[in-house]
From TrEMBL:
The gene is purF. Keywords: 4Fe-4S, Glutamine amidotransferase, Glycosyltransferase, Iron, Iron-sulfur, Magnesium, Metal-binding, Purine biosynthesis, Transferase. One of its GO terms (biological process) is 'de novo' IMP biosynthetic process. This is Amidophosphoribosyltransferase. Its EC number is 2.4.2.14. Mg(2+) binds at S286, D348, D349. Its cofactor is [4Fe-4S] cluster; Mg(2+). CDD domains: GPATase_N (cd00715), PRTases_typeI (cd06223). In the C-terminal section; belongs to the purine/pyrimidine phosphoribosyltransferase family. Pathway: Purine metabolism; IMP biosynthesis via de novo pathway; N(1)-(5-phospho-D-ribosyl)glycinamide from 5-phospho-alpha-D-ribose 1-diphosphate: step 1/2. Residues 1-219 form the Glutamine amidotransferase type-2 domain. Coiled coil: none annotated. [4Fe-4S] cluster binds at C235, C385, C434, C437.
Amino acid sequence: CGVFGVFNVKDAAALTYFGLHALQHRGQEASGIATSNKKEIKCIKGKGLLTDTFNSQTLKQLKGVHAVGHVRYSTAGGNEIENVQPIMVRSHKGHFAISHNGNIVNAKELKEEMENNGSIFQGTSDTEVIGHLIQREREGTFEEKIIKAVQHLEGAFAFCVMRENCMYAVRDKNGLRPMSVAKVDDGWVVSSESCAFDIVNGKDEFDIEPGQIIKFDYDGIKKIQYTDKTQKKMCAMEYIYFSRPDSSIEGINVHTARRLSGRMLAKIDKEQGGIEADIVVGVPDSSLSAAIGYAEESGLPYELGLIKNRYVGRTFIQPTQKQRERGVRMKLSAVRDIVKGKRIMLIDDSIVRGTTSRRIIQLLKEAGASEVHVRIGSPAITHPCFYGVDTSSRKELISAKMDANEVCEFIQADSLKFLEIPEMMEAFETEDLCVACFNGKYPTDLYDLGEQLEEE
Ligand code: 5GP
Ligand code: SF4
Ligand code: MG
């Protein structure tokens, strides 16, 4: 998902709209914006793309200088309208709106406990659990309630809470999901990715630290470290696939990280006996950076062998397999004159189910490619993610059942290589990563979600 927040900037709704637009790649199932005019909070949300719900008319209804917005990619809870964010909490103690990215792994336990104590939940999303946790605290200021509430949460979360006159941005203690802050005029903006800051003229940006809460009010910002049991475990998949190439996460530009992963793949090929190919082709859009890197390091020409139809959304993000398969067919086509008779070094960012690679290789061979060698800019995904990236079922992961040779055969490639975890870390120049979907070492407890690992 994508989260965007504004504190104390004129036309907060319009700013949030622009911010969310830059984050649309993070979720396309639903979107919403809540604003505060310092007295009351209003919220509009709907299914589909941002432009399906918002236009100049709807934005005009959202008045105020504070806002939180959300674009949704559902991994926990279905796509019912009750689960669409921001989630509004209205009570006699005050109102607030929450936008959340990530996945709370102990949401079920917390929810059951609260239901046994009389709480009623509207939807099935874990975000509502955060609202209830804040709400049920009887003592203390709102700030103290948030600090207490987050102590109960386990998993991946980066969220924004907006009240009538203040806002909070929170990151989990492992820093699994990204969230940054920037200055705009006399106010502030918060975003899942830094790519959204350019369009709103954000300056002096910084990442919120793991285990940190940033409080925004009219006195400025306050940094609150709510726990010192922190680690730096940024989701590796943010660099590999999820984020936009013009974003920087923890000081590392995403395009640069991908390009270095491509260079690493070529370096390994050179060491292991050379490269037998004519051209390098990346799968648009997320693999183009890695393909550029591979071409640079190998000396082979980088070519546009595949073209993407820009008017088809991210195939993976579509909830069902049937929608995804149709999506791939609509989305990519081979450039016949470029690939005909060529030995192709095809670079992709990851293999999840294997459907995309298999289809692309078929496309390239139908268009006359003589050989297709596949290099993947990440390790083989052998384990499900419980932190908000939709590879939740192990059954669907091709590398959970097959080794690289078998996957190579399934996708009908002439050869296939993945990066190993240490090679990826060397390429990205950081070890501060979650790599659980590649090695099964989860940085948090999994509660009953872990049962899934044993069953399958
Ligand atoms: P599959 O192997 O499942 O057919 O597709 C993998 C491709 O889907 C990757 O090349 C990647 O670009 C794209 N993709 C879309 N969403 C995601 C995601 O959430 N995680 C990963 N790893 N890849 C994704
Ligand atoms: Fe990211 Fe994989 Fe960790 Fe999930 S398990 S947070 S996809 S690195
Ligand atoms: Mg891809």
